[in-house]
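Same chain as my last thread, 250 residues:
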Amino acid sequence: MLVRLLRTGDDDTAAAVCEVLPTWLTPGETHGVQALADALVAPARPTKVWDAAARRLVQLLPGSVTGPVLRGAFDTLADRTRDPRTRGDALRRLHMCAEYSDQGAGEGPSTALDALADTLETVRLHADAARVSWHTAMAAVRDGEHDAPRWERVARQCEAGAGRPPTRHSVPSDLHRPEVRAALLAAARMLRARGGAVTGRLALDLVRAGGRATSWDEPWRAELDALRAHQDADTAVNALMVDPDGDGRR
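reply #2:
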């Protein structure tokens, strides 16, 4: 019923169905997810429809159905960016998928969001790509995993996008598990080793979070010292301004 309304209803009806349809989806459901994806890419649908579809799609739990369907939708939009007549519309839809990506379920890294990050990079939305990649890399950290390829992608996309860190690049505040701190530390060291300005800043953000969570026990003080000797002058100065004895001590 809802899938049929989404496909055949007017724009107001379709937008309303996009908002409620995910609550009715059962595990392994194919038709509902595909209907949302079709609404995302439908050329004739106005912003209120595809925007609602984008928001709900990227918030779906990762799964064997969700991933392939979303990858297909992202590929469709990427293909449209090659045509000057449809490029702007396709870029806007991909951008909004990125905007909603950090509001997802947050239960581990999502292959669908990996596909979104790759698509955004392909169409040169580097800032959006970096934000989505940061989100998936941090999802792995929350699971206690250092996923080096994801962090390499974060670094590459930040460096390609005017050398700026991702917007809203939050660091998990719940770092009480040793495996989560170890994953965070490994990511910080990898970013520092790249030697660039943007990756140095990101490494410092991770080190500050880890240091505060541990009252600046080792190895976080040593990692801060390494950043104070960073080859990027701004990173080194910003690291010198961090006071471990007054910054989040418990």
